Amino acid sequence: MNNAELTLPELQSICLEILIDIDDFCTKNNIRYSLAHGTLIGAIRHKGFIPWDDDLDINMPRPDYEKFKKSYKSDKFEFFCHEKKNAYISFGRVCDTKRTIAKSTIPWTPIESGIWVDIFPLDGIEDSILLRKIKLKILSILYELQIVVRKSHYRIPKKITFTKKFHHFLKLIIAGTININHLVAFQMYLCKRVPFGTNNKWAHLTCEADENKMVNKLEDYQEIIRTEFEGHQFCIMNGYDHVLRNEYGDYMQLPPEEQRLPQQNYIKFYWK
Question: Which pTM does this prediction carry?
Answer without folding.
Answer: 0.90
